[in-house]
Amino acid sequence: MLAAAVVIYACAMTLANLLIAHFGPWFSPINAFVLIGLDLALRDALHVRLSGRQMLALILASGALTYALNPSAQHIVVASAAAFTLAALVDWRVFAALGGTWLRRSIGSNAVGAVVDTVVFSTLAFIVLSPAPKPLEVVAQIAALQFAAKVAGGALWALAMNRWLRVA
Question: What is the pTM of this model?
Protein backbone atom coordinates (compact mmCIF):
# COMPACT_ATOMS: atom_id res chain seq x y z
CA MET A 1 0.00 0.00 0.00
CA LEU A 2 2.84 2.40 0.85
CA ALA A 3 4.60 1.82 -2.47
CA ALA A 4 1.38 2.46 -4.38
CA ALA A 5 0.81 5.70 -2.46
CA VAL A 6 4.34 6.89 -3.29
CA VAL A 7 3.88 6.12 -7.00
CA ILE A 8 0.46 7.80 -7.15
CA TYR A 9 1.84 10.83 -5.31
CA ALA A 10 4.75 11.18 -7.74
CA CYS A 11 2.69 10.55 -10.91
CA ALA A 12 -0.26 12.86 -10.19
CA MET A 13 1.92 15.95 -10.77
CA THR A 14 3.18 14.70 -14.12
CA LEU A 15 -0.35 14.03 -15.34
CA ALA A 16 -1.49 17.45 -14.10
CA ASN A 17 1.31 19.13 -16.08
CA LEU A 18 0.53 17.25 -19.26
CA LEU A 19 -3.14 18.17 -19.00
CA ILE A 20 -2.39 21.89 -18.54
CA ALA A 21 0.12 21.81 -21.40
CA HIS A 22 -2.51 20.22 -23.64
CA PHE A 23 -5.70 22.06 -22.56
CA GLY A 24 -4.27 25.38 -21.32
CA PRO A 25 -4.48 27.47 -18.13
CA TRP A 26 -8.24 27.26 -17.72
CA PHE A 27 -7.92 23.50 -17.15
CA SER A 28 -5.83 24.09 -14.02
CA PRO A 29 -8.81 24.39 -11.61
CA ILE A 30 -9.95 20.90 -12.65
CA ASN A 31 -6.42 19.60 -12.07
CA ALA A 32 -6.33 21.47 -8.77
CA PHE A 33 -9.47 19.78 -7.51
CA VAL A 34 -8.70 16.23 -8.62
CA LEU A 35 -4.93 15.77 -8.88
CA ILE A 36 -3.47 18.49 -6.67
CA GLY A 37 -6.09 17.86 -3.98
CA LEU A 38 -5.11 14.20 -4.11
CA ASP A 39 -1.42 15.05 -3.77
CA LEU A 40 -2.03 17.40 -0.85
CA ALA A 41 -3.94 14.77 1.14
CA LEU A 42 -1.74 11.88 0.07
CA ARG A 43 1.36 13.81 1.17
CA ASP A 44 -0.16 14.02 4.65
CA ALA A 45 -0.98 10.31 4.68
CA LEU A 46 2.62 9.57 3.73
CA HIS A 47 3.88 12.05 6.32
CA VAL A 48 2.72 9.78 9.15
CA ARG A 49 4.29 6.68 7.54
CA LEU A 50 7.68 7.98 6.39
CA SER A 51 10.59 9.47 8.29
CA GLY A 52 11.46 13.13 7.83
CA ARG A 53 14.35 12.25 5.54
CA GLN A 54 12.22 9.91 3.46
CA MET A 55 9.50 12.54 3.12
CA LEU A 56 12.01 15.21 2.09
CA ALA A 57 13.55 12.84 -0.46
CA LEU A 58 10.11 12.02 -1.87
CA ILE A 59 9.19 15.71 -2.18
CA LEU A 60 12.45 16.59 -3.92
CA ALA A 61 12.39 13.49 -6.16
CA SER A 62 8.79 14.19 -7.18
CA GLY A 63 9.69 17.77 -8.07
CA ALA A 64 12.59 16.48 -10.19
CA LEU A 65 10.38 13.81 -11.79
CA THR A 66 7.82 16.45 -12.68
CA TYR A 67 10.54 18.35 -14.51
CA ALA A 68 12.19 15.33 -16.16
CA LEU A 69 9.05 13.73 -17.58
CA ASN A 70 7.51 16.79 -19.22
CA PRO A 71 10.06 18.31 -21.63
CA SER A 72 7.35 19.43 -24.09
CA ALA A 73 5.85 21.95 -21.68
CA GLN A 74 8.99 23.45 -20.19
CA HIS A 75 7.48 26.62 -18.67
CA ILE A 76 4.63 24.62 -17.10
CA VAL A 77 7.09 22.02 -15.81
CA VAL A 78 9.47 24.53 -14.24
CA ALA A 79 6.56 26.40 -12.64
CA SER A 80 5.01 23.16 -11.42
CA ALA A 81 8.24 21.71 -10.06
CA ALA A 82 9.00 24.93 -8.16
CA ALA A 83 5.44 25.31 -6.86
CA PHE A 84 5.08 21.61 -6.03
CA THR A 85 8.35 21.47 -4.11
CA LEU A 86 7.84 24.72 -2.16
CA ALA A 87 4.19 23.91 -1.35
CA ALA A 88 5.14 20.39 -0.27
CA LEU A 89 7.79 21.69 2.10
CA VAL A 90 5.41 24.27 3.60
CA ASP A 91 2.55 21.76 3.85
CA TRP A 92 4.87 19.24 5.51
CA ARG A 93 6.05 21.77 8.13
CA VAL A 94 2.52 23.00 8.88
CA PHE A 95 1.21 19.43 9.15
CA ALA A 96 3.98 18.60 11.63
CA ALA A 97 3.30 21.74 13.68
CA LEU A 98 -0.49 21.46 13.90
CA GLY A 99 -2.09 19.53 16.72
CA GLY A 100 -5.24 17.47 16.76
CA THR A 101 -6.45 14.66 14.55
CA TRP A 102 -4.84 13.66 11.28
CA LEU A 103 -7.87 15.05 9.43
CA ARG A 104 -7.60 18.47 11.11
CA ARG A 105 -3.87 18.61 10.46
CA SER A 106 -4.31 17.53 6.84
CA ILE A 107 -7.03 20.04 5.99
CA GLY A 108 -5.15 22.86 7.75
CA SER A 109 -1.82 22.15 6.12
CA ASN A 110 -3.49 21.64 2.72
CA ALA A 111 -4.97 25.14 2.86
CA VAL A 112 -1.56 26.67 3.57
CA GLY A 113 0.14 24.49 0.94
CA ALA A 114 -2.56 25.48 -1.57
CA VAL A 115 -1.75 29.18 -1.08
CA VAL A 116 1.95 28.61 -1.79
CA ASP A 117 1.30 26.28 -4.72
CA THR A 118 -1.24 28.63 -6.32
CA VAL A 119 0.82 31.81 -5.99
CA VAL A 120 4.07 30.26 -7.19
CA PHE A 121 2.56 28.20 -10.02
CA SER A 122 0.25 30.89 -11.40
CA THR A 123 2.93 33.58 -11.29
CA LEU A 124 5.59 31.45 -12.95
CA ALA A 125 3.46 29.49 -15.44
CA PHE A 126 1.18 32.22 -16.69
CA ILE A 127 3.26 35.40 -16.30
CA VAL A 128 7.01 35.06 -15.68
CA LEU A 129 7.91 31.99 -17.78
CA SER A 130 5.02 31.93 -20.24
CA PRO A 131 5.86 32.46 -23.92
CA ALA A 132 2.56 34.41 -24.09
CA PRO A 133 2.00 35.99 -20.65
CA LYS A 134 -1.62 36.34 -19.57
CA PRO A 135 -3.07 39.63 -18.27
CA LEU A 136 -2.94 39.95 -14.47
CA GLU A 137 -6.72 39.92 -14.10
CA VAL A 138 -6.93 36.64 -16.03
CA VAL A 139 -4.17 35.08 -13.91
CA ALA A 140 -5.92 36.31 -10.76
CA GLN A 141 -9.17 34.63 -11.85
CA ILE A 142 -7.40 31.37 -12.66
CA ALA A 143 -5.46 31.52 -9.36
CA ALA A 144 -8.63 32.12 -7.32
CA LEU A 145 -10.32 29.13 -8.96
CA GLN A 146 -7.20 27.00 -8.46
CA PHE A 147 -6.96 27.89 -4.78
CA ALA A 148 -10.63 27.12 -4.09
CA ALA A 149 -10.37 23.86 -6.03
CA LYS A 150 -7.18 22.78 -4.20
CA VAL A 151 -8.70 23.44 -0.78
CA ALA A 152 -11.98 21.68 -1.66
CA GLY A 153 -10.26 18.78 -3.43
CA GLY A 154 -7.70 18.39 -0.64
CA ALA A 155 -10.47 18.34 1.97
CA LEU A 156 -12.51 15.74 0.07
CA TRP A 157 -9.47 13.52 -0.54
CA ALA A 158 -8.49 13.89 3.14
CA LEU A 159 -11.99 12.91 4.25
CA ALA A 160 -11.89 9.85 1.97
CA MET A 161 -8.43 8.81 3.18
CA ASN A 162 -9.38 9.36 6.78
CA ARG A 163 -12.41 7.12 6.37
CA TRP A 164 -11.15 4.40 4.05
CA LEU A 165 -7.45 4.24 4.82
CA ARG A 166 -7.81 4.95 8.52
CA VAL A 167 -4.80 7.25 8.51
CA ALA A 168 -5.82 9.00 11.72
Answer: 0.84
